[in-house]
Amino acid sequence: MNEHPGFCLSCFMPLSQEADACPVCGASMAELSGRHYQEKLVHALLHPLADIRMRSIIALGWRAEPETADALVACALRHPIDVVQNLEILRSLDRMKDETIRKTALSTLQARHPAHAVRESAARMLDSSQRKGEFDA
Questions:
Q1: Tally of CA atoms within 13 A in the half-sphere of 120 that contains its CB
Q2: CA 60/CA 63 separation, integer angstroms
Q3: What is the pTM of this model?
Q4: Is the per-residue pLDDT at 24 higher than 50?
Q5: Percentage of the chain lying above the pLDDT 70 cut
Q6: 3-state class of 7 per DSSP?
Q7: Residue 62: exposed, middle, or buried by beta-carbon count in 10 A (0-12, 13-18, 19+)?
Q8: Contact by Cβ (8 Å): 126, 103
C-alpha cells in the first residue's frame, strides 16, 4: 500500500490514501513519490491552492537553484493577481547566484508582469544589482 497526502501528486485531484494510481489522470503514486525533491517543488507551483504554491516558492528560494528560475517566472505570470506570492517569487529569484539567469528572470517580470508593484520591485532589484556591480569593479 502506498501512502500519499490524499490528493494526486500529478493533477492534485482528491484521492484516497490507499490508491496506487489516480483515477483521473492515471498517474502512479509510487512513481510520483520517487521524484527528486526539486522536481516536486517545481511541480507544486502548479497547485491550485495558493498556500501550497507559496511553500514551494519559499523552499525554492532557499535552495536558489538557477534551473528553477523559468518555473518561478511562469508561476508569477500564471497568477498575476497574487501580488504577495509574486513578491516572494522576486525574492526567490534575487537569491540566485547565477547573475545571467537572475537578471533574465527579473527582467522578464519587469517587462511582462501586469502588476505595477511586481514590475517596480523587479526593476529595483535589477538596479541594486547593477549598482553593486559598479562598486565591485
A1: 4
A2: 5
A3: 0.84
A4: yes
A5: 91
A6: strand
A7: exposed
A8: yes
Taking only Cα atoms into account, the Rg of the chain, rounded to an integer number of angstroms, comes to 17
CA 35, CA 44: separation in Å to the nearest integer? 12
Give Cα separations from 4 to 32, 44, 71, 82, 133 (angstroms): 10, 14, 24, 28, 46
pLDDT digits (tens, 9 = 90+) for 121-131: 999 999 987 76
Residue for grid cell 535589477: 126
DSSP string, 19-52: -SB-TTT--BHHHHHTS-HHHHHHHHTT-SSHHH
Q: Compute the CA torsion angle 93, 97, 103, 105 (nearest 10 deg).
A: -40
